[in-house]
């Protein structure tokens, strides 16, 4: 493959890994978890990786990016948890870190975790991610509290309108994790073909 | 996102056309879609601009021209226009997908939430939280009772044992001093870190985690935003400032969450100058405990200095006023497991950050005493100390205040116990000491976070301000003939 200027230069936003399609199936597929603070990203991360990390959105701890490995249906994935992020246009240093991971890392799957109760406030970011051509799965977390507040979400219609997979979860009780894992594997296969 | 070309008139037209033009110029090797890159360019995202400039240097001028052309069409920043369109799009989807069955469930929580953000109810509530959470629990119980007990145990059992062991093994007096002397690494540095700072910080983080878990912090940020805007900060600075009451060193580390360099600088300086940490608060409150009038005056003066210096810096430092909007999450009952995990992780993190600094401080004190540098510095301090109306013995308290702010306060406490200070002098001394140079740990942190020039600059500035204010307070008390 012809190397472009973009890849040769030491640009902070260009990927460290060149777009080498032959090499990709050797390294584990990369999952990046993003979303606002307080939506349960870290718990979801723990559920996927079975590694202990802190449940916190506090600047001092979550600016350090956590990563681990997940084995889903016999396939190995690298999972990266990012600091809280509100949009693709970063304001704080931490959001800048988050965006770099998103852009530089060339993730195979982006899990956008949102609070199902506040879908309205968070969906704009989802749309931004989809528009950017990133391989997004939308995860509606904290479904239990949403249900308690009487919020009903039409998943099938939402999936059709945004044209990416949508999964509902309750990360604290691991509800919905099976379906999420299925979608991750399915999405990874679909992307390959 | 699509900008409707025909429905919303000519302005709409130009944004979509510009985007299409830019998209046409970009190649498809970017890690984001061309449309996303184009939109970020239109929002004048610096990093993306640099990325395109690097990858396609020939087209960047053309793109810049297109963007400035579009900007002329709009009264608001393009970023705002784009956000508006996106919101409309979200609304269209939400209206079709989300149904809310009943709404009465949030009644009480909503009301409490509104009260927290309302200035009339919010500030008294804040005062109550600070009084019980910070003063009573962290200050009186944590820094007083618990630390008193631990330090006593340390002093009466562990320290004599350490001294005995090391004195018998190491014949050299100098090395003995370094390890187990009056200011030794084990007897002072480690003791402070373990017996004093660790319990205080644990108590503080416990309170902080509870407050954070309930969702109070974003509401406090909203409440205080307007006041903070006046001093060049925004509601976002609430977290570093609240943390400053626990430990200003840690708070300085956390200023990195502030978006602009200007805000980070202002926050760092105010933390160094006018936010007393919990260790220091404990001793100062004990000192002024018997003089309620002096305590009220002290709090008033420190608050005024905080606001006044903040206001002045905001005027002097160039830069834009910060903008601030924040997500307000629902109020929740704090989760006990969560709180313990958070507290544990933070205490661990903090302790690892801070322990080396304390050990280093011990070594520096040892060096200072060995080289007689300290005697010289105490001599230098004597003049300004007597100028603000204090006995010259206080000079030593000030020098040690730099190595640990509360240690300086403790030095004053000894003077006070021996009846060497009047009420007036007590007030002046407490004001000077609160505003005085940050402790050495914070000083080292300032250097690390803001660079050595700024770090040293901030220290000199606080040194000057603390004595200037104390001088004025002393003068005012004398002229008005007030004796506390």
Topology (SSEs and partners):
The complex is a heterodimer of chains A (193) and B (484).
Chain A: H1 5-8, E1 29-34, H2 41-49, H3 59-62, E2 66-72, E3 75-81, H4 93-104, E4 109-115, H5 119-131, E5 136-141, H6 143-148, E6 151-153, H7 155-162, E7 166-168, H8 177-192
Parallel strand pairs in A: 1-3, 1-4, 4-5, 5-7
Antiparallel strand pairs in A: 2-3
Chain B: H1 10-25, H2 34-42, H3 46-55, H4 60-73, H5 78-97, E1 98-100, H6 107-117, H7 119-169, H8 173-180, H9 185-214, H10 216-230, H11 238-244, H12 248-254, H13 261-274, H14 278-288, H15 292-316, H16 336-370, H17 373-387, H18 394-403, H19 405-417, H20 423-435, H21 440-450, H22 452-480
Helix pairs in contact in B: 1-2, 1-4, 7-8, 7-9, 7-14, 9-16, 11-12, 12-21, 13-15, 13-22, 14-19, 14-20, 15-20, 17-18, 18-19, 19-20, 20-22, 21-22
Task: Estimate the strand proportion of chain B.
Answer: under 5%
Radius of gyration of chain B: 28 Å
Helix count from the secondary structure assignment of chain A: 8
- Tell me, what's the shape of chain B? elongated
According to DSSP, the number of beta strands of chain B is 1
Biggest interchain interface, per-side counts: A-B, 59 and 56 residues
Number of domains of chain A: 1
In CATH terms, the superfamily of chain A is: P-loop containing nucleotide triphosphate hydrolases
Number of strands of chain A: 7
Amount of helix of chain B: over 70%
Strand content of chain A: 15-25%
Task: Tell me the series of helices and strands of chain A, N- to C-terminal.
Answer: HEHHEEHEHEHEHEH
- How many DSSP helices of chain B? 22
The description of the largest β-sheet of chain A is:
6 strands, mixed
Unreliable spans of chain B are 4-12
Query: How much helicity do the residues of chain A have?
Result: 25-40%
Which key phrases capture this entry?
heterodimer; A: 193 residues; alpha/beta; Rossmann fold; 6-stranded mixed sheet; 8 helices; 7 strands; 37% helix; globular; disordered N terminus; B: 484 residues; mainly alpha; Helix Hairpins; 22 helices; 77% helix; elongated
């Amino acid at each position: 493959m012809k190397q472009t200027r973009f890849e040769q230069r030491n640009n902070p936003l260009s990927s460290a890994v060149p777009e080498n399609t032959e090499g990709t199936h050797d390294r584990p597929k990369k999952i990046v978890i993003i979303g606002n603070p307080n939506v349960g990203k870290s718990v979801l991360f723990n559920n996927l990786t079975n590694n202990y990390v802190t449940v916190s959105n506090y600047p001092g701890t979550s600016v350090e990016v956590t990563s681990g490995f997940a084995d889903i249906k016999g396939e190995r994935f690298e999972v990266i948890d990012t600091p809280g992020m509100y949009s693709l246009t970063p304001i704080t240093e931490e959001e800048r870190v988050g965006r770099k991971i998103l852009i530089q890392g060339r993730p195979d799957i982006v899990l956008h975790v949102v609070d199902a109760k506040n879908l309205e406030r968070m969906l704009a970011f989802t749309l931004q991610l989809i528009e950017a051509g990133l391989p997004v799965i939308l995860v509606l977390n904290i479904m239990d509290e949403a249900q308690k507040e009487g919020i009903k979400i039409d998943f099938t219609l939402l999936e059709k309108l945004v044209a990416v997979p949508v999964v509902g979860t309750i990360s604290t009780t691991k509800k919905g994790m099976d379906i999420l894992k299925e979608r991750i594997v399915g999405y990874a296969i679909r992307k390959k073909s | 996102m699509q900008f409707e070309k025909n429905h919303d008139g000519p302005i709409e037209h130009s944004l979509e056309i510009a985007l299409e033009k830019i998209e046409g110029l970009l190649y498809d090797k970017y890690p984001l879609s061309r449309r996303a890159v184009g939109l970020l360019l239109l929002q004048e995202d610096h990093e993306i601009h640099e990325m395109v400039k690097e990858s396609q240097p020939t087209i960047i001028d053309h793109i810049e021209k297109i963007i400035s052309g579009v900007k002329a069409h709009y009264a608001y920043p393009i970023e705002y226009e784009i956000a508006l369109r996106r919101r409309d799009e979200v609304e269209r989807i939400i209206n079709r997908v989300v149904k809310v069955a009943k709404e009465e469930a949030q009644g009480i929580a909503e009301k409490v939430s509104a009260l927290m953000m309302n200035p009339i109810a919010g500030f008294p509530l804040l005062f109550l939280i600070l009084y019980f959470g910070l003063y009573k629990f962290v200050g009186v119980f944590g820094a007083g009772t618990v630390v008193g007990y631990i330090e006593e145990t340390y002093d009466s059992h562990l320290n004599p044992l350490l001294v005995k062991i090391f004195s018998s093994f190491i014949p050299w007096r100098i090395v003995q001093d370094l390890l187990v002397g009056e200011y030794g690494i084990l007897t002072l540095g480690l003791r402070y870190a373990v017996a004093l700072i660790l319990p205080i910080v644990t108590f503080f983080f416990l309170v902080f985690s509870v407050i954070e878990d309930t969702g109070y912090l974003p509401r406090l940020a909203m409440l205080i935003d307007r006041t903070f805007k006046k001093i060049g900060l925004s509601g976002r600075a609430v977290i570093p400032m609240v943390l400053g009451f626990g430990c200003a060193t840690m708070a300085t580390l956390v200023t990195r969450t502030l978006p602009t360099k200007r805000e980070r600088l202002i926050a760092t300086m105010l933390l160094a100058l006018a936010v007393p940490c919990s260790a220091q608060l404990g001793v100062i409150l004990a000192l002024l405990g018997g003089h309620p009038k002096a305590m009220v005056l002290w709090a008033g003066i420190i608050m005024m200095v905080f606001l006044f210096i903040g206001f002045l810096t905001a005027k002097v430092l160039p830069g834009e006023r910060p903008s601030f909007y924040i997500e307000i999450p629902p109020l929740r009952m704090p989760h006990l497991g969560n709180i313990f995990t958070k507290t544990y992780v933070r205490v661990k993190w903090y302790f690892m950050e801070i322990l080396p600094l304390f050990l280093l401080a011990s070594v520096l004190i040892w060096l200072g005493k060995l080289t007689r540098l300290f005697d010289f510095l105490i001599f230098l301090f004597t003049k300004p100390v007597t100028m603000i109306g204090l006995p010259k013995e206080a000079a030593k308290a000030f020098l040690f205040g730099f190595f640990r702010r509360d240690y300086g306060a403790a030095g004053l406490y000894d003077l006070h116990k021996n009846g060497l200070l009047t009420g007036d002098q007590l007030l002046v001394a407490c004001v000077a000491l609160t505003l005085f140079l940050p402790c050495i740990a914070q000083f080292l942190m300032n250097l690390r976070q803001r660079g050595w020039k700024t770090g040293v600059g901030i220290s000199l500035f606080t040194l000057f301000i603390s004595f200037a204010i104390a001088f004025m307070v002393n003068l005012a008390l004398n002229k008005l003939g007030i004796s506390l």
